[in-house]
Amino acid sequence: MNSYYPAVDNITMDVFPNEVLAIVGESGCGKSALALSIMGLHNKERSLIKGHIYFQGTDLLSLSVSQLNKIRGKDIGMIFQDPLTALNPLMRVGQQIEESMNYHTSFSKKEKREKTLHLLEQVGIPDPRLTYNQFPHELSGGMRQRVVIAIAIACEPALVIADEPTTALDVTIQAQIMELLKTLQKKSNTGIILITHDLGVVSEMADRVAVMYAGQIVELSAVEQLFNNPLHPYTRSLLNSIPSSSSDDDRLHVIQGIVPSLQNIPRSGCRFSPRIPWIDASHHEDHPVMHEVESNHWVRCSCYKHFYFPNEKVGEK
C-alpha cells in the first residue's frame, strides 16, 4: 500500500487576468508541486491530489486526461524551469512550437509556420527563420528559454505558469526574460503565476505575492504590502536575508534550520516554530489558520504578533 505525504496542504488562492501572482519560498517548500498539480502533470500512480482547482469555472481535477489536454497548451501554458529537459532534443524548434497548434487549432501548414516565426520574433529571437530549423542543443540557455516561452504562449492562453523561468541564466538574460513576460502579460491580458525564490524578481514583476513554507501559504498580500509590512516570521526572515548596502552589519542573516522533508513536516502546530525556538510555544496556534490582518493581507498563525529577531529587543519589530 502506498504511503502519501502531503507536499502541499490546504492551498487557497486566486489569480486574475492581467495579474502576476508570485509564489515564493525556499527550495522544497512545494512551489513546483503546486504548479504540476494545476497542470495535472504528476504521476497518477505515485501521487494523490485532493480538493478543487477551478479554472474559468471548471474543476480541473474532475476532468479526464483527454478533457484536460484540451485545456493544457490552449488555455493554460507552462514555462518549465529547465528548458533543456523541457524541449525534445530530436525535434526542430519550429516543430515543437507548432505542436500545440496542431492539437488546438485548424491552421494550415503555412499559417502555423507564419505564426511560429512571429512567436520567435515576439520572444526576441534575432533570426527566427534560422532558429525555426535548429535543434535545442544548437541554442544557448537564454535562447532555449525563449523557445519554451514561445511554446507556452503559442495558443494565447489565459493563464501562464512560469516555474522559475530564469534559473541558471545570467543576470542580463534574466532581466530580458522577465521583461518579455511582463510585456506579454500586458499585451495579452494574461494571468501569470510566477514561481521563484528570487525576491528581487518578485519586487519587479509581481502584483501579489504568496509566501510558501513547508507546503502551506504563510502570507498572502499585494507586493507593496509584503515588502513594506512583512508580518509572518518566515517572510521577515527571508527579507532579512537579503544583503543591504544601507546596513552597518556586514554579516548575512541566516535562517536557523532547514525546510523539513515531507516525512518530517509537522502536521499540527506552526510549521515554522522549530526554526524560531526563542518564540514561546504558547504564541503559536495548535492549528494555524490564515488571518486577514489588513485588507487583502493574510498571515498564518498568531505567532507573527510576538516575533522578533534574537538581536532585537524583545517585543520590538
Automatic annotation (TrEMBL):
Cellular compartments annotated: Cell membrane
Q: What is this protein called?
A: ABC transporter ATP-binding protein
The source's domain of life comes to Bacteria
By sequence similarity, the record places it as follows: Belongs to the ABC transporter superfamily.
- State the SUPFAM superfamilies in the record: P-loop containing nucleoside triphosphate hydrolases (SSF52540)
Molecular-function annotations in GO = ATP binding
Predominant location category: membrane
Say if the entry is tagged with keyword tRNA-binding. no
Q: Which UniProt keywords apply?
A: ATP-binding, Cell membrane, Membrane, Nucleotide-binding, Transport
Q: In what way does this protein cross or attach to the membrane?
A: Peripheral membrane protein
Taking every annotated instance into account, which residue ranges of this chain make up the domain ABC transporter? Answer: 1-239
What's the source species for this entry?
Answer: Sporolactobacillus shoreicorticis
